[in-house]
Amino acid sequence: MAIKVLIPTALQKFTNNQATYEGSGNSVSELIESLEQGFPGIKSRLCDEQGQPRRFLNLYVNSEDIRFLDGIDTPLKEGDEVSIVPAVAGG
């Protein structure tokens, strides 16, 4: 099952400068594990010690924020697109 992951520039140094990744998994948490297998160490940049997405990252499945879906348990299917978007702050 191919799921397209869009990697932000700030994290591309952990993905050998790849802006996209074709991953797999039945949920966002499984997809993160797929990313970790492909790029060891990236999971610690995406998730905290409890396995939850870090507060400064937003994850979207087909433009829907997973916080308003089922969080990391949000189901995925073939052809879905997951975006990793770092939070932006400033003033």
Automatic annotation (TrEMBL):
UniProt organism field: Chroococcidiopsis thermalis (strain PCC 7203)
Keyword tags: Transferase
SUPFAM superfamilies from the UniProt entry: MoaD/ThiS (SSF54285)
Protein name stated in the entry: Molybdopterin synthase subunit MoaD
Pfam families recorded: ThiS
RNA-binding in keyword set: no
Enzyme class: transferase
CDD domains according to UniProt: Ubl_CysO_like (cd17074)
Record bears the keyword Disulfide bond: no
EC number, as in UniProt: 2.8.1.12
A molecular function (GO) term: molybdopterin synthase activity
